[in-house]
Specification:
Blueprint (H helix, E strand, L loop, with lengths): L1 H8 L8 H18 L10 H20 L5 H24 L5 H8 L1
Helix pairs in contact: 2-4, 3-4
Length: about 110
C-alpha cells in the first residue's frame, strides 16, 4: 500500500504537479454551480453560464489530448459541463426561450 501511494505521489499526474492541483481547484466551479441550483433562474447570467459551458468543453478536449491524459481534469470539466448546461436550461426556461414551442402548439 505504501509503495502504491508513493507511486501516485511521484507520478506525472500526482500531487506534485499542476496536472493534479489544477483539476482540484476547478472542482470549485462544480461546487458553485451545484450551490446555485437553489437560486431563482432570474439570478443566473446567461452569458457567464454559456462561457462556462464553452470553457469546460474546451478543457475536456485538452484533458483528453494532453499527455499523460488527465482523467481528473476530464472528470472535473465533464461534471462542470453538466451542471452549467442544467443552469443554462434553467436560465433559458426562466426567460421563455424553451417554452415558446409549447405556446405555439397550444395556440394552433
Amino acid at each position: 500500500m505504501a509503495s502504491a501511494f508513493r507511486a501516485f505521489l511521484n507520478s506525472p499526474v500526482g500531487p506534485k504537479t499542476t496536472h493534479f492541483w489544477g483539476p482540484v481547484a476547478n472542482w470549485g466551479f462544480v461546487a458553485a454551480g451545484l450551490a446555485d441550483m437553489n437560486k431563482p433562474p432570474e439570478m443566473i447570467s446567461g452569458n457567464m453560464t454559456a462561457a462556462m459551458c464553452v470553457y469546460s468543453a474546451l478543457f475536456m478536449r485538452f484533458a483528453w489530448m494532453v499527455q499523460p491524459r488527465n482523467y481528473l481534469l476530464l472528470a472535473c470539466h465533464a461534471s462542470n459541463e453538466t451542471v452549467q448546461l442544467y443552469q443554462l436550461s434553467r436560465w433559458a426556461k426562466g426567460n421563455g426561450y424553451l417554452s415558446e414551442k409549447k405556446e405555439e402548439a397550444a395556440s394552433k
